[in-house]
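BUG: 3D viewer hangs when loading the predicted structure for this chain

Environment: internal workstation, default settings.
Expected: structure renders.
Actual: progress bar stalls at 90%.

Input used:
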Amino acid sequence: MVIPKGQVQYSDFKGLQEELNKVVHKIIMKVEFAKEHLTKIVHAYFASKTVDPKIYDQKKKLEVELGRISTMLELHDKCQSEAIFFNDKSLNAGLFS
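Structure tokens produced before the viewer hung:
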């Protein structure tokens, strides 16, 4: 169907634009759903694979090491705050007060 140039109204295009926007929105929603669903499938697939138990041993060792390092940093911070107390003071400051 061919419409002569003078008979085309802006409102005709506006309705068409709204319908196209609805269709595009539906397509985007379906693509997002498919993407999320496929992501879940991939995660489930990899979760079903056997994980090497050495990884858990390594994780435990790293957690122990992290605890040790955290303790060292806490001690260092405490020493730093004590050093600030004695900054420009004699080492017996506050000892006989």
